[in-house]
Amino acid sequence: MSKLKVGLVQQANTDNRQNNVDKSMAGIRACAAQGAQLVVLQELHTGIYFCQAEDTGKFEMAEPIPGPSTEEFGKLAKELGIVLVTSLFERRAPGIYHNTAVVLERDGSIAGKYRKMHIPDDPAYYEKFYFTPGDLGFQPIDTSVGRLGVLVCWDQWYPEAARLMALAGAELLLYPTAIGWESTDPQAEKGRQFGAWQTIQRGHAVANGLPVIVVNRTGFEADWSEVTGGIQFWGQSFVAGPQGELLYQAPADEEVNIVVEIDKKRTEDVRRIWPFFRDRRIDAYQGLLKRYID
């Protein structure tokens, strides 16, 4: 299929898992009612963003895959006949946890999963305490709506991740995300952060000739440790076309269930006029395998 209707569910979360799940499901239904064939949820949509502080008790939020969430959301995907991208806190084994995106097929089965590869460790984003880096590589997931290059949040800053997904045949780049402003950030810094975030992802679209779908959470979440003033998630989920053109951008402070139509055929058209893949000097990129070139 050339034309694809993609649903984005941008939501605010609380520490009540069932309320979060109900909200995600309502958003999925709203998108399906608008004709969505693929629906993408934000990062860790079943709970709060628990990485604001280091707390061993938060590991109780993790679950196996397959598990309760894949069962619940798989049933909904089958009922609605859609492909669904979820984002879960995976308990793989005692002491091994991942930040994992799971793609559910329209029959409710698990089409594939991606474990977040790049793990941040910054004030209010202490993810290295919780997540083991992914070990599944940058492999697109084949579905009935196309080959999906699924990445997660911090991955979106790395052009290597987007490129490897594109080189492996991804037709879309998808980024479930949880990013916002820490309470002490001044307004000018907030503007710079958001501008850089959107710019680099639009750059991935340009460099790879692919549509990019980014779904971010919104709303304020307090830091339960009271070390910081909490995070105001900046929402503004967006869709960019293969030349980086903005097809849609959500508001910052609203929950949104929206469907955006993309034309996958434009990838072929754009790559014919901007043949970046043809002109890559693969014989000269060995330095990319080094941490730094001294």
Largest sheet: 6 strands, mixed
Helical residue percent band: 25-40%
Broad CATH class? Alpha Beta
Beta-strand percent range: 25-35%
- Strand pairing plus helix content: what structural class? alpha+beta
Count up the helices.
6
Low-confidence stretches: none
Structural domains: how many? 1
What letter string, H or E per element, gives the SSE order?
EHEHEEEEEEEHEEHEEEEEEHH
How big is the Rg? 18 Å
Query: Roughly how many Å apart are the termini?
Result: 48 Å
Compute the average pLDDT. 97
- Strand element count: 17
What is the CATH topology assignment? Nitrilase/N-carbamoyl-D-aminoacid amidohydrolase
**Strand numbers in spatial order across the main sheet:** 5-4-3-2-1-17
Shape: globular
CATH architecture annotation name? 4-Layer Sandwich
Identify the CATH homologous superfamily: Carbon-nitrogen hydrolase
Describe the structure.
Helix 3 (159-167) packs parallel to helix 4 (187-208). With 294 residues, the chain is an alpha+beta fold. 25% of the residues lie in helices and 30% in strands. It has one domain (3-279): Nitrilase/N-carbamoyl-D-aminoacid amidohydrolase, CATH 3.60.110. The longest helix is centred in the C-terminal third of the chain and has 22 residues, at 187-208. A hairpin with a 5-residue loop joins strand 15 and strand 16 (246-249).
